[in-house]
């Protein structure tokens, strides 16, 4: 048993509710003013699933949560990865009325948990607490093309502060060439070679 609402004109199903409580709605769900709440009260984490078992291709969108005005102005898009059980997330936004929807950041990718930003990252301060080993043997690894500075400090004023390396050991600052040969080596005790 169950409950079925259908269109008298063409006999198409509009709303079907099965005896197990599952509901299928043929059209959009419009709610009134105020906040919309989905409640699943329990002593465990509740879960909202967006299900689309897409199998036609890899690295394609399977679902999105879109903020919509006259057009989509921002959204969280979920992608199926190259494998059927992998995936990643992208956040999109429109920077002005004339622009198109553009990718801002991607969380995850195939075979890696990297985060990729499409533009500059602005922050009041950035702290990297590096406690493990990673490829490149560095807490911050900068890789870029031949024509740009890897790290550049451009101060607003004329104060003395630029780059600080605070260490008591060797190799406070090391400059090497592309072959890995050390040309300049500054120690934490003030020694230099």
Task: Summarize, please.
This protein is about 0% helix and about 30% strand.
Report what the structure shows.
The chain is built from no helices and ten strands. The mean pLDDT is 87. Strand 4 (60-68) and strand 5 form a beta hairpin. Helices cover 0% and strands 32% of the residues. Strands 4-5-6-7-8 form a five-stranded antiparallel β-sheet, with no helix packed on it. By secondary structure, it is an all-beta fold.
Write the layout of secondary structure elements.
Elements: E1 2-6, E2 13-18, E3 23-25, E4 60-68, E5 72-80, E6 87-93, E7 102-109, E8 112-117, E9 173-176, E10 182-186
Antiparallel strand pairs: 1-2, 2-3, 4-5, 5-6, 6-7, 7-8, 9-10
Report the mean per-residue pLDDT as an integer: 87
User: Hey, roughly how much beta strand do the residues contain?
Assistant: 25-35%
Q: Tell me about the largest β-sheet.
A: 5 strands, antiparallel
Instruction: List the total number of helices.
Output: 0
Shape by Cα distribution: elongated
Helix content: under 10%
**Measured distance between first and last alpha carbons:** 85 Å
Coarse structural class: mainly beta
Q: Which oligomeric form is depicted?
A: single chain
Radius of gyration: 27 Å
Strands ordered across the widest β-sheet: 4-5-6-7-8
Which ranges are low-confidence, i.e. pLDDT below 50, for 5 or more consecutive residues? none
Summarize the helix and strand pattern as letters. EEEEEEEEEE
| Counted beta strands | 10
């Amino acid at each position: 048993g169950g409950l079925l609402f259908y269109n008298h004109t063409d006999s198409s199903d509009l709303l079907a509710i099965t005896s197990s409580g599952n509901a299928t709605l043929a059209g959009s769900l419009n709610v009134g003013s105020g906040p919309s709440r989905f409640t699943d009260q329990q002593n465990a984490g509740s879960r909202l699933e967006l299900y689309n078992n897409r199998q036609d291709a890899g690295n394609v969108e399977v679902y999105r949560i879109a903020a919509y005005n006259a057009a989509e102005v921002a959204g969280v898009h979920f992608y199926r990865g190259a494998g059927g059980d992998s995936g990643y997330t992208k956040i999109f936004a429109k920077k002005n009325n004339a622009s198109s929807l553009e990718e801002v950041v991607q969380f995850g990718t195939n075979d890696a948990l990297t985060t990729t930003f499409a533009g500059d990252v602005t922050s009041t301060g950035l702290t990297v607490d590096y406690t493990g080993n990673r490829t490149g043997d560095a807490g911050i690894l900068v890789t870029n093309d031949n024509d740009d500075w890897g790290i550049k400090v451009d101060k607003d004023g004329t104060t003395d502060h630029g780059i600080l390396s605070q260490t008591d050991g060797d190799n406070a600052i090391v400059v090497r060439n592309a072959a890995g040969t050390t040309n300049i080596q500054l120690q934490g005790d003030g020694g230099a070679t």
